[in-house]
Amino acid sequence: MELRHLRYFVAVAEEGSLTVAAQKRLHTAQPSLSRQIHDLELEVGVALLNRGPRGVELTPSGRVFLDHARTALLQVEAAGEAARRAAQPARTSFAIGFLTGYEMDWLPAVMDILRSALPSTEIVIHSQDSPDLAAGLMRGKIDLAFLRPEKSAPGLIFKPLRRDPLIVLMPRDHALAARGSIRPQDIAEEKFIGVSATRAPTLKAAIDDYAKRARIRLKPEHQAENIAMAISMVASTRGIALIPLYVQKLLPNTVTSRPIQGASPTVELVIGYNEANNSPLLKFLLSKVDELKFRVMKNDGR
């Protein structure tokens, strides 16, 4: 089995189409890609994909294999990055990642602590989805990240920061906006905008778990790939969405939010880092986690 087999398989699985993966991701001929996937399945000994007129779908074995394939590719890239770093002088920069939107809460507190301790260090900021931040930590391209506790992230350590309740996002002139809080059954009766299982797996799991506990059926009519897309879809389709509380700070005038009646579902925010990262600055920041939380809580008025 070669690395190219894993890359080809991941591309096909993510695109859901041999043709699209061949043309857009791999820049190869579709028949050649089909042969490579067939060779991989022969070597593994099980079918990984079901092929149909509407594209390809992962078999149960394929879903398991996909997680391992992604991890293997990330570890290979991390090994190359580590080798390149070892051949270079010590870095004077430090890369911090934020799940998009959270930098508004946490970046000022981080920068205040770093300026007082190491004013000459260059701080590089990344704002991405949580799975991309986890991948950056695994590859060694990000030193510390504020993200969700991602699964299938070997070598990463997560330290809890806080749990954010989910709120109901809606157009400002929506009928539900006249209420002080939203009942679970009200959510089930509205056009619902879901979130991507690939781009926001932890948030989707929290929403699905809440729907199960509240005994409501949520069938998304649209799916948002990120927070900005969710806000835009709420405004344009007049649907509603369940989004973490911090998003309130990002809303335009046309969109508003309301709390959920009863026990609100929550989603966890953590600090993540690679256990193989020996950066002194990383150790310094990890020793200041309690101070970071205090500063943010003070600014939030909690």
Can you walk through the features of this model?
With 302 residues, this protein is of the alpha/beta class. It folds into three domains: 3-84, Arc Repressor Mutant, subunit A (Orthogonal Bundle), CATH 1.10.10.10; 91-161 and 268-300, D-Maltodextrin-Binding Protein, domain 2 (3-Layer(aba) Sandwich), CATH 3.40.190.10; 165-267, D-Maltodextrin-Binding Protein, domain 2 (3-Layer(aba) Sandwich). 46% of the residues lie in helices and 22% in strands. The protein has eleven helices and eleven strands. Strands 3, 4, 5, 6, 9, 10 and 11 form a seven-stranded mixed sheet that branches. Helix 1 packs across helix 3. It is flat, with a radius of gyration of 22 Å. The mean pLDDT is 88. Belongs to the LysR transcriptional regulatory family. It holds the Pfam family HTH_1. This is LysR family transcriptional regulator, hca operon transcriptional activator.
Q: Report the span from N to C terminus.
A: 54 Å
The CATH C-level class name of the largest domain: Alpha Beta
Q: Strand-residue fraction?
A: 15-25%
Instruction: Provide the number of structural domains.
Output: 3
